[in-house]
Amino acid sequence: MTSIHRHDDDLARASAILRGDGAAFTEFYRQAFPRLYRYAVRHCGDAALAEEVTQQSLVTALEKLDGYRGESSLLTWLFTIERRQLERRGALDARVLTVEDDVTLNAALAAIAPDQDADADPARIASRSEMTRRVHSALDRLPPLYAECLEAKYVLGLSVREMAERQRRSEKAIESTLGRAREAFRDVFLTLTGGEVSQ
């Protein structure tokens, strides 16, 4: 399973902001705002609401910044806060494409499964290796529970029932966690790849 990866650079940035470092705050805002705004627009489809939610999410993040522990990237932590803001407003658009429906991202997740084709050509092996590296980089930035759920499904090939038995949780709870894990993976993976995924 993926071990907890501390994001020391993000922890240092959070610490600098908490100390009142203006330059650290400006850089944080410059990098975070456009990504959060695009995330909100994609999920609610309303530019004005997206800007309002993004501003509120950043305010909330600053209020809670002393609770950031670096177990996920700062950006992933911010996406989680913003998603909650959107949920509270009932602004999540159910029509937004999810990872479950996204053929390309499903292929990315499938890349972490063991390759059964030992006779694959070198180009395919190299392509798969690069995709696997990117996927693992994204998994390292997710909360540990999300990474473990995705690995259980895509690496171990466990069913929801098997995952529920292992974790001593209900199947409904596993399905809910898996859904959130896929969404978090989507956001982190697309951020890491600049919004593009190649197979």
Which labels suit this protein?
mainly alpha, 199 residues
Summarize this structure briefly.
The chain is an all-alpha fold. It has helices at 8-18, 22-44, 47-64, 74-88, 103-110, 122-140, 144-154, 160-167, 171-192.
Tell me the β content.
under 5%
Oligomer: single chain
Average pLDDT across residues?
77
Share of helix, binned:
55-70%
Low-confidence stretches: 1-5, 94-101
State the end-to-end distance: 25 Å
Spatial shape: globular
Rg from C-alpha positions?
A: 18 Å
Structural class: mainly alpha
Question: How many strands, which pairing sense, and closed or not: the largest β-sheet?
Answer: none
Provide a count of the helices: 9
H/E order of the elements?
Answer: HHHHHHHHH
- Total strands: the figure is 0
Explain what this protein looks like in three dimensions.
The chain has 199 residues and is an all-alpha fold. Helix content is 68%, strand content 0%. The two termini are 25 Å apart.
Task: Record the SSE blueprint.
Layout: H1 8-18, H2 22-44, H3 47-64, H4 74-88, H5 103-110, H6 122-140, H7 144-154, H8 160-167, H9 171-192
Helix pairs in contact: 1-2, 2-3, 2-4, 3-4, 6-9, 7-9, 8-9
